[in-house]
Amino acid sequence: MSGPRVFFYVQHLLGIGHLRRAAALGRGLLEAGAAVDFVLGGAPVEGIAPRGAAVVQLPPAVASDSNFTHLLDAAGNKVDERWKATRKQALLDAYGAIKPDIVLLEMYPFGRRQFRFELLPLLDLVAATRPKPLVAVSVRDILVDKGRMDRAREAVEIVKRHVDKVLVHGDPRLVRFDLTFPLATEIAGKLDYTGFVVERMAQPSATVDRAKGEILVSAGGGAVGFPLLSAAIRARKLTRYRHRTWRVITGGNLPAAQRQELDRLAGGDPGIVIESFRPDFARLLAGCQLSVSQAGYNTVMELIALKCPAVVVPFAEGGESEQTLRARVLTERKVLGMVDSEFLTPGTLAAAVDAAQPPAPLELNLDGAARSAADLVAAWTQARR
User: Fold this and answer.
1) What pLDDT tens digit does each residue of the chain (385 aa) get?
2) Cα-flanking dihedrals φ and ψ of residue 268, to 5°?
3) Which helix (H) or strand (E) holds 166?
4) CA–CA separation, 355 vs 342, rounded Å?
């Protein structure tokens, strides 16, 4: 018996964290014997899909700003009803062409409500298919808390009506899903804690001396990283690491004008190295003395996996609460240091850098990609009997 074919819908809007997590999940599915079709709705990112996966690119949509005020099309125009109709049809056509055994939705209905114009028709089409594909949702352990019980109720009703499994990519020993989704008990029978999804990374060599390493500053894709990156460059001369090399990885989505400003702030100092991207970022993280970064899911899990001393500045614009909550939980466990974004200055960041300590031991399940894949394949196999 061949493995299942998975229709994996992923819509990223601002950064690429969702895409990176999805790519790791896709790799796990491929290794479990599944065929994977990524159906991507954000701006194209070259090389993001794992080898062996197929990619269907929908007409791309991106967020207009960090507040996710509007959706914009590839030309930067606000999307209209005509665009939505075209996009919906492209999605439904992709489903019809792929004929999947499993439909895996990233975030929806716990997020991405702006795309319900296409996802609700997709779920209705799946429900009418015979044999009906297994429907699963891939969601991180901490949601953005908007305080909207009506939206939580809507998500529960969609899960009850359409979804077979909700893959929660976390470990309840750290954070339970009901911390940010108060109606979790109503769908408890469909929740599956998979462990955290972390890209495979070589562990630091026993011979690596972090005390001789660099200070590594990063901001994910960079689209909203300028406040952190600029504060870090200014903070360097205020810290006890002022004579150490500070390597600043801006991410490929940092606007050009902001990159120029970072170069100006660095002032040609040979101790400040500014780069857009490093394919060996995990190796740098494994050997650095200290990481200074935002607190997105992927970043934090990499820090934990590599036991890297760290200071994080959670992204909190537009009502985003997920990074702040994650950082506070880990600060309480003495795994990392934290500066709230509203208090970010070169001085507060320098103080946190000087106070940073090696992370306290933390036992977590970091095998979420393989576990998610195994659970989906097992559920599909069981449903066929």
Assistant:
1) 589 999 999 999 877 888 999 999 999 999 999 999 999 999 888 888 899 999 999 999 998 776 667 899 999 999 999 999 999 999 999 999 999 999 999 999 999 999 999 999 999 999 999 999 999 999 999 998 767 899 999 999 999 999 999 999 999 999 999 999 999 999 999 999 999 999 876 555 556 788 889 999 999 888 889 999 999 999 999 999 999 999 999 998 899 999 999 999 999 999 999 999 998 898 999 999 999 999 999 999 999 999 999 999 999 887 789 999 999 999 999 999 999 999 999 999 999 999 999 999 999 999 999 999 999 999 999 988 7
2) 75, 10
3) strand 165-169
4) 19
Q: Which residues pair with 248 in a beta bridge?
A: 217, 274
Q: How many whole angstroms separate alpha carbon 144 and alpha carbon 180?
A: 7
Q: What angle do CA 121, 122, 126 make, to 5 degrees?
A: 115
Residue 383 and residue 332 in contact, taking contact as beta carbons nearer than 8 Å: no
Amino acid at 196: F
Task: State which amino acid sits at residue 284.
Answer: L
Helix axes 346-355, 226-235, angle to 10 degrees: 70
List of domains in the chain: 5-198+366-384 (3.40.50.2000), 210-355 (3.40.50.2000)
> Residue 288 to residues 10, 115, 199, 271, 283: CA-CA distances in angstroms?
32, 40, 18, 15, 9
Are the C-beta atoms of residues 7 and 101 closer than 8 Å to each other?
Answer: no
Round to whole Å and give the CA distance between 317 and 68.
10
pTM over cut 0.70: yes
The token pair at 199 is: 């890209």
Could you tell me whether strands 215-218 and 191-193 are parallel, antiparallel, or unpaired per DSSP bridges? unpaired
Helix (H, G, I), strand (E, B) or coil at 225: coil
DSSP code for 273: E
What amino acid is encoded at 72 in this protein? L
